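Worked example 2:
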Amino acid sequence: MSRLRMFGSRLLGLVRRRGGDDNLDVELRSHLDALTNEHIRRGMNAEEARFAARREFGGVEQTKEAYREQRGLPFLDTLWQDLRFAVRIFAKKPGFTAVAIATLALGIGANTAIFSVVHSVLLQGLPYPEADRLTVVWSIFSNEGRGPASGPELVYLRERSQLFEEFGGIWAQSGALTGEGEPEHVRLGLVTSNFLSMLAIKPQLGRFFLPEEQGTYSAKSVILSDALWRHRFGGNPRLIGKSVHLNGNSITVVGVMPPDFKIIFPEGSSVPPDIDAFVPFASNLAEDPRDQCYIRVIGRLRKGVAIPQAQAELDSIATQLRSEFTVFSEQALGLQVVPLHGDVVRNVRPALLTLFGGVSLVLLIACANVANLLLSRANERQREITLRTAVGAARGRVIRQLLTESILLSCLGGAAALLLGSWAMNLLLSLRPAGMEGLVATAFNLPVFGFTLALSVLAGILFGLAPALGTTKLNLVDSLKEGGRTVTAGRQRIRNVLVAAEVALGFVLLVGAGLLLQTFASLLRVNPGFNAQHVMTVRLSASGVKYQTPESAIHFFRELQKNLSATNGIDSVGVISHLPFDDTLPNWYSYYWPEGAPKPEQNTVMADHRSILPGYFASLGAQFVAGRDFDPIDAQENRPIAVVDDSVAARAWPRGSAIGKKLNVENGNFVRDTVEVVGVVRHLQSHSLTDPVRGQIYLLYPRAVRAHMALTVRSNIDPHTLVGLIRREVANLDKDMPVYGILPMNDYVEKARRPARFTSTLAGIMAVIAVLLACTGIYGVASYSVLQRTGEIGVRMALGARRGEIFAMIMRQGMLPVTTGVLVGLGLSLVLTPLLSRLLFGVRGGDSVTIAATGVLLLGVGVLACYLPARRATRLDPVAALRYE
């Protein structure tokens, strides 16, 4: 209670400070007057008595400060004083203040923008209830990981697992909404009845699926996304319980998901985030073929269960599956469990952490630059600091004042950084690659503001501490004699060290940016195996009651291809099940082996299977290595033939030709089939520009009928005209068929380059900022050195020194810290650049050309920054220079 009473008394004293100061002045004057009168009575005159009284009493101002500390809250009191004084100091030097704030805004703003991404993507959990217990369960087939599960596999997991509360599954497909209005394509999620309840607390309207609605062999209920509900049905709340026409069937709307709900699944799972509608699995999963794997499985761990425990249980379950079922044994089935959030960000984590390290270096360079600016002002404020110390200010008090100025300056830079960071955030949003679906435009939240504030305070202490300590370490007599005009050698050394640090950190950033830019340039030169120029792609979905027989779908696509091919201006038309670099639909891949392969070699290697019609390779400009393409007769007679890529051919028949050989593959009905190889085409990059991933096997569409196909149309027709033409031809054949996914093939290639573009662009921006900051730092040190040595230069010139010698002296002294920084940066880059190896393609981490070019660039920047001050020094008038002191 006494402490609370004391705090209240101090707070009251702080509020009533003016009255207390007046009373204190009266009391101190009375004490001084009494002492003065005592000395007068002892025989001193009035003047001597007054001085004697002051000597005996001690420092009046120190006494006042001690009294104030006892009466009020000294920290808040002095802080307010320091802040007001700092504002007056900054107002007197608006140019210095603006440059310092702009420099800090660059450093802090870059950190704020990247941290907002790191927080949204890496640190913030997924927007699901108890998201930390959600996991992804992948199937492993021999050497092929991250695969989907079959229906029986999922059922078996539910029955045998003790460490998981529940399992759910999803399979992304496409559908068509018909009825009122134009036919509309919808991204459809086929799910287990509990899948949505695992990811959301409750729907916005209606209910989740009931267990009995799954496995009825016909879709009877649907749950809509908020976006589809609003734009297709006008947000009608009375839609619940009403019927809509999906894929030609009338089904009942039982719920609408919340507005912010989205599916966030790992890259490569073929589950898009913006699914429009959900329906329960129609089949009885337990009765599905055991090797028909298509379901993406998630699980919720029981509380307290760790991933290693869950993995041990899944290993045991996989062993049981292999022992009980021959098909799982032949495929060497394994199971892997990983945290859902960790798996979602696994591909973007290295790039984000690298960029976060890069912006940290930018901030350090900015701090070094501002520290140099403060050191430049330190000599101007030397007399002020000397006088404050002479009248009794303690060194700690002066240091606190100077640090308050630095922190206030840094906080002003942080405020400007928030504005700069919002612009940078828009840039990040425009460049974001796959895996950053959690990043949204409103990422500037309370944690980001807190980070910016903490970083501003830390930066203020970092760049303000050295100048504050150096400025207050002085000899009063010498400082008062010098009048604050002479710079100490120690301070100049600090400035040179800061410049060397800027150059070294800039060297590391430039090398990293150079390597990432070379990676992106290498990706631009990669030949994906096809020519994407002048190719338009269109997706179509032949699903629903109209296409329940394979013949109806075959007839539709063959007629559409024939009609479009006959149009003037269209060179070729292809039809394929899976477009390169398009992962919006589940991939189709399976085992293959040459005819006659022994049993141990039959389920060891997988290839991507593709369903096509003749004309696809011509539409993409693919190059045949051997054999021939499919022809219309092949499709018409549904011949058991295939075209394989060169990687499949080389693996299956390494010592001979593949043409005419037989291959065991999986056909469109997911059963084993034997086909004859009639052609070998060069591999088409399908998943990544830098990794072949798997070989490819192409089957005729009549032999591998798929509901969801795509057109590849090579044409010189204007894209808008071409799209209209395609829509008309589709409508002529089926007015209820939605046309969607209309994109140039180039867009898919650019999507594959986006991760490299993201990192290289941001690294390049950071490198440019680093070079600009280093250049201004070098220039500032050289200019200030010339200013401080004006008198010395005048003496040298008066004694006969030539202008060339003065120029060389300034250049030599200015380039010394630059050269030192380049050498230190070289060593740092050799240590740090190997950390970028996961992000590089087509270039080594220690690339000598990049390192040499960076060194030359920074030395050139140093020469340029030192040239102007050195040239100015040679133009000094010796007489004026001698008068400077």
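Residues 745-788 form the longest helix (44 residues). The longest strand covers residues 164-178.
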